[in-house]
Design goal:
The protein contains five helices and four strands; from the N terminus they run H-E-E-H-H-H-H-E-E. It is mainly alpha-helical.
Length: 132
């Protein structure tokens, strides 16, 4: 590399990255059903449903309606959500809400699904740690 060459300082965020960040978010801040977020003690880090957790990973903040946010990260959010939806074999995104809110569902179920979907995405789209 030449001294004048400036390598990129950031790498593209993949859907797998966002899904893993969402799993970590749920692990650290908690999970909820019935709404995107449940404000408990700290409004900056509310408990989140699976869609809310992916939104927190993509946007870095809670939003009233993550699907309608007019920000550059919106396509990343939607793609990660689609990867999870496809992994769970759900026909549409609205069914993801039903999956999240199913009685008996646990935070561990959500964390495991997010992680497994990320692993599957990586296995299909990366080779040796690099994007295909």
């Amino acid at each position: 590399m030449k001294a004048t060459h400036n390598p990129p300082t950031t790498a593209a965020v993949t859907p797998a990255d966002l899904l893993r960040m969402a799993a970590l978010y749920v692990r650290r801040h908690g999970w909820t059903q019935g709404d995107y977020y449940t404000i408990v003690f700290d409004a900056a880090t509310p408990r989140a449903c699976v869609s809310g957790a992916i939104a927190m990973a993509a946007y870095g903040t809670a939003t009233d309606f993550p699907f309608g946010v007019d920000r550059p990260e919106r396509p990343d959010f939607r793609t990660a959500l689609g990867v999870l939806r496809d992994f769970l074999d759900l026909s549409c995104t609205s069914r993801l809400f039903g999956w999240n809110d199913k009685p008996g569902r646990t935070a561990d179920d959500v964390i495991n699904a997010l992680t497994a979907a990320a692993d599957q995405w990586d296995s299909l789209h990366t080779q040796g740690g690099d994007n295909r």
